[in-house]
Structures are given as C-alpha cells and as structure tokens.
Amino acid sequence: MLRPFVAYLRVYEPLSAFRETPADQLRKAIEAVQLTRATVGEREQRLWLKSQTSAPARLLPAELPDGRAVPGTGTDFLVLDPADVPGEVGPGPLICPLEVRARSAAALVSFLGEAPPALRATVLEAGGVSAEAVRSRASAALSELSRAAVHVLSTTWTVPLPWFALVDPAQRRLHLGTGRDDPDRELSWRVAMPDALARAAEARELIENTLGDSGPTRILAETEQWLANFDPASAVELDYGGLVQLIDDPVLESDASAEEVHAILDALRAGDVEQIAELFSALREYWSELAAMEHAN
Predict the structure, then answer these.
(1) Residue 242 to residues 29, 73, 152: CA-CA distances in angstroms?
(2) I need a surface site. Which of 23, 227, 232, 263 has the fewest CB within 10 A?
(3) How far apart (Å, rounded) are the C-alpha atoms in residues 200 and 164?
(4) Taking Cα atoms as reference points, which of 97, 63, 67 lies closest to residue 80?
(5) Residue of 35, 89, 33 whose CA lies nearest to 236
(6) CA 139, 144, 148, 149: dihedral to nearest 10 degrees?
(7) Can you tell me whether residue 218 is helix, strand or coil?
(8) Strand blocks (E) in 93-231
(9) pLDDT for position 148
(10) What's the pLDDT score for residue 73?
(11) Where do the DUF8083 domain residues begin and end (predicted)?
C-alpha cells in the first residue's frame, strides 16, 4: 500500500509537557504504541477514508456522528528516543501526537478563509453543511488540543524550502531500503528545539532584511511562531514521509536541498546574487518535477 505523498514537520515533546494527562496513562500508552514513521501515513489515510465512507460521511476524521472524538485516537502518537536527536532534548521518551482530527479542523478553517467563494460554496453544498456549522465543529475539535497548536505540519507533493533552514544539512538520515516501495525508506533530519528556533529566527531576519516581506519570510515567521508553542526540550523532525516513494535511489541519495537552502542563506549574507539565482534555479527544477507528478496524478 502506497503511503500518502505527504511530507511532515513534527514536534516531539517530553512527557512533562503533557500535564493534563496522567504520566502513568501516558507511559502505558507508550508501551502499547504500534505506530512508526513508516506506518503513520497509512494510519492517517485509513482515518480519512473511514470518515468519508461512513454513512453519513463525517465532517472530520476520527470523529463520531455526534462530533466527539473516536475513543482511543487520543493516544495515536509517535515516540522518539532523545539519543537519536543531535543536541540537548528530553528527558525521554519524546512523543508527537498525531492529532489528525484537530489538524483536519485547522485545515478546514483555513479553507473557509482562503478558498475562492465559488469553490467554498460548492464544497459546503456537496457536504450539506453551512460555514457556521463547519467553524463550530472545527472550533470544538481544536479546543481539545493540549497546546495552542498541533504537533504536526504537513504538505502534499513537496517540502516548503524554508523548512530546510531549521536543520543541519550534515545531520541527514537516509535509508534507501530495497527501493521505492520499502516502508522503511526514509529521508529526514532531527534537531533540538533551541537550535531549530535559533536557525528559523536568523534565516527570517536575514531574508526579511534582504528580500523584505516575501513568501519565505512569512513561512519562516509562521514556523517560528508555531515552534514557540512547545517545550524548549522538544525535538523537531523534518521528514520527507511518503515523498520518498516518488524519487529513485540515485536522485534521493544525491538530494542536496538542505545544503542548497543553507548555501542560499550564505549567499544572501555575502550579497552574491549570481549564486543565489543559480542555487534557486536548481531547487526549483528539482521540486517542480515532483509538483508535475501531482498534476499528472
């Protein structure tokens, strides 16, 4: 089964950050955890499909007909050992709740605010719901979060280039496995929260001073604000997720997106316009090929 073509930016927090849940309950849930990086996409996909094939269809995944969360999904999370993260994090174990229902609610709210009126009206009519009902159900789901923000950001078919500014390119984790369909195939980076925040702030300030309020500036500012919601002892993970299924071994092995983004930042510091243009052109060509697959799908 193919994993969703989704990339992730995740935050893993220490148990002490989840004060609203008894520690014993969390530890028992951790002992029973079966989700891995390789299976988390399938879990999210099943929850989505189940919500849409139910009669009647659910507005959000992992939701009962009356709008309450499905019991048991509150302990859907990934677990990370602090020893696998460069820098000071922990103590462990570190956990990242999936929060699929809340993430979907946040996406719905964004859709209502950003979609063209005609598209918004068509979707609401097809679902037999009003904008007010959607906002009410979404607000209820978001109010159940343990934080003011979800622990996972995700994008389909691509990775936002500013995300690479958070990581150390040399800390890449690459596992090709037996090929594209290997469930353990991975390309990811892990970083301690203080380092991620420092890099985000430095990159945002640099780009803002040189390029103004551009798209990358806004993405970095939003990412920085998002990261600030979490425990300082957390870990951050940038994961290509299911995108590794789209990329052949030699191309994935030679992927230099993180290095090139950091080289662009160095070129900005040096005012080297020609190098910036050359590096950006290479990145745009690489990621546009993946974007083209979305249009052909």
Answers:
(1) 26, 22, 15
(2) 23
(3) 9
(4) 97
(5) 89
(6) -90
(7) helix
(8) 94-97, 152-156, 173-175, 186-192
(9) 75
(10) 65
(11) 5-294
CB neighbour list of residue 183: distance below 8 Å, 6 or more residues apart: 3, 38, 39, 177
Whole-number Å distance between alpha carbons of 205 and 195: 15
Taking 70 as the pLDDT cut, the residues of the chain under it are 1, 22, 55, 57, 71-75, 294-297
Q: Quick check: 96 and 152 in contact, CB under 8 A?
A: yes
Q: Residue 134: what pLDDT?
A: 80
- Other beta carbons less than 10 A from residue 250's beta carbon: 9
Segments in 11-161 forming alpha helices (H):
23-31, 37-53, 100-114, 117-127, 131-142
Contact criterion met (CB below 8 Å) for 224 and 200: yes
* Alpha-carbon separation of residue 247 from 38, 132, 157 (angstroms): 16, 42, 11
**22: exposed, middle or buried (C-beta count within 10 Å: 0-12, 13-18, 19+)?**
exposed
For residue 151, give the nearest of 217, 94, 82 by alpha carbon: 94
Token pair 């301690």 in the structure block, residue: 192
Tokens 């979060």 belong to which residue? 145
pLDDT given for residue 221 in this prediction: 95
Q: Is the bond preceding residue 91 a cis peptide, omega within 30 degrees? A: yes
Distance CA 144, CA 97 (A): 12
Are the beta carbons of 206 and 265 closer than 8 angstroms?
Answer: yes
pLDDT of residue 131: 83
Query: To which residue do tokens 């299976």 refer?
Result: 39
List pLDDT tens digits, range 182-238: 989 999 999 999 999 999 999 999 999 988 888 899 999 999 999 999 999 999 999
Taken in order 49, 74, 32, 185, the sign of the CA dihedral is positive
Q: Using CA atoms, how far apart are residues 46 and 54, in angstroms rounded to an integer?
A: 12
